[in-house]
């Protein structure tokens, strides 16, 4: 249930409408690429988003340019020459996974597609303030395109972070994100992974664009089968392909507001080293994309989802194992039905 923001710098972007993309991460630009950087202690606000202080072959005698401005010029040159709330502490992890997480809530708190907590709001505001400081102080180039998960906590995170930023003068793209199904959190049996309706999203942020084919109701979550990591990576690869297809070739910076599990999946697809994000954190990645004909694409594979048994009442044990009460035998049917999420 963690939200995270990923700033993707698109270098060596592919061209022409074709079909198959291959992605690699280009190291040497951000501290998060380095094996010596510890994800558990890294603070992006204390490290300039992780941008490494270095020179580029595109640097000129204009020493007044900031590190971010020189980085943008360098990426522009490369591109031109290339085609929420956590509840395990209350119930214990086993009990949370096999019973409580499958409900809409506990009568006091609702976690089905949960909204941001006060802590989440504060973390999004921290990201907003850091963006604002870099824009004002360093002339940082803002995203040329914005993409966001359809889950409420990600929608609100993106809005708090970007909606009222004072954009730099010139050709800065307006904040009008595209809501993409493919950027949602990994789809488990937990109700926090069940998204609300398209109408709800439109009502929440009327000016935002929703991708074509986005269903009114959630057709992926069923409370019975869960998405495997392999299946999520297939979905993430498809989302990346769509982002590259939709984004103007001149666009260099793309913002993705998603979730810790989904960001981890995107990093796997990009070939980036594993880098666990704290809630509300940001990771920049320089991406190289090679686009080729469908003939070069590997044969598609079918990746199945999994099922797991869960209790129909609060389990007996919630510390070391999930033990269902004798009157509540394990089942593989949803515990929450008929959601009122509009």
Structural commentary:
There is one protein chain. With 342 residues, the protein is an alpha/beta fold. It contains 8 helices and 9 strands. The chain has 2 domains: 263 residues, Rossmann fold, CATH 3.40.50; 33 residues, no CATH class. Helices cover 27% and strands 13% of the residues. It has a 7-stranded mixed β-sheet. A two-stranded antiparallel ribbon has the order 6-9. β3, α5 and β4 form a beta-alpha-beta unit. α4 packs parallel to α5 and α7 crosses α8. The protein is globular, with a radius of gyration of 21 Å. The two termini are 20 Å apart.
Summary keywords:
disordered C terminus; alpha/beta; two-stranded antiparallel sheet; 342 residues; 7-stranded mixed β-sheet; 2 domains; globular; Rossmann fold
Give the count of structural domains.
2
Q: Structural class of the helix and strand makeup?
A: alpha/beta
Would you tell me the overall average pLDDT? 78
Helix content: 25-40%
Distance between the termini: 20 Å
Overall, the morphology is: globular
What is the CATH level 1 assignment of the largest domain?
Answer: Alpha Beta
β-strand percent reads 5-15%
Task: Please tally the β strands and state the result.
Answer: 9
Oligomer: single chain
Biggest sheet: strands, sense, closure? 7 strands, mixed
Low-confidence stretches: 11-18, 81-111, 337-342
Q: List the secondary-structure elements in sequence, H or E.
A: EEHHHHEHEHEEHEHEE
CATH topology of the largest domain: Rossmann fold
**Name given to the CATH architecture of the largest domain:** 3-Layer(aba) Sandwich
Q: Any idea what the radius of gyration is?
A: 21 Å
Question: Number of DSSP helices?
Answer: 8
Strand line-up in the sheet with most strands: 2-8-1-7-3-4-5
Signal peptide: 1-18
GO molecular function: phosphatase activity
Protein name: Phosphoglycerate mutase family protein
Keywords: Signal
């Amino acid at each position: 249930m963690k939200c995270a923001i990923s700033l993707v710098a698109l270098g060596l972007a592919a061209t022409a409408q074709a079909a198959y993309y291959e992605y690699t991460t280009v190291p040497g630009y951000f501290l998060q690429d380095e094996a010596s950087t510890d994800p558990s202690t890294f603070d992006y606000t204390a490290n300039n988003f992780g941008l490494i202080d270095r020179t580029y072959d595109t640097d000129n005698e204009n020493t007044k340019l900031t590190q971010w401005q020189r980085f943008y010029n360098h990426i522009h040159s490369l591109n031109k020459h290339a085609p929420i709330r956590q509840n395990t502490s209350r119930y214990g992890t086993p009990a949370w996974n096999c019973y409580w997480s499958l409900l809409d809530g506990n009568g006091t708190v609702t976690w089905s597609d949960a909204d941001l907590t006060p802590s989440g709001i504060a973390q999004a505001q921290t990201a907003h303030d850091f963006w604002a400081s870099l824009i004002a102080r360093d002339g940082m180039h803002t995203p040329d395109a914005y993409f966001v998960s359809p889950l409420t906590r990600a929608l609100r995170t993106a809005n708090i972070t970007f909606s009222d930023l004072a954009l730099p003068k010139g050709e800065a793209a307006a904040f009008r994100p595209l809501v993409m199904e493919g950027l949602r959190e990994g789809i488990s049996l937990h109700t926090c992974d069940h998204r609300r309706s398209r109408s709800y999203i439109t009502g929440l942020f009327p000016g935002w664009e929703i991708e074509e084919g986005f269903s009114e109701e959630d057709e992926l979550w069923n409370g019975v089968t869960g998405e495997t990591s392999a299946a999520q990576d297939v979905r993430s690869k498809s989302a990346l392909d769509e982002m590259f297809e939709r984004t103007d070739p001149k666009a260099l910076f793309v913002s993705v507001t998603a979730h810790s599990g989904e960001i981890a999946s995107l990093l796997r697809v990009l070939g980036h080293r594993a880098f666990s994000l704290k809630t509300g954190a940001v990771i920049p990645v320089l991406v190289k994309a090679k686009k080729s004909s469908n003939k070069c694409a590997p044969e598609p594979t079918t990746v199945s989802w999994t099922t797991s048994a869960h209790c129909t009442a609060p389990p007996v044990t919630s510390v070391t194992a999930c033990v269902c009460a004798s009157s509540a035998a394990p089942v593989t049917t949803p515990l929450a039905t008929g959601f009122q999420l509009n």
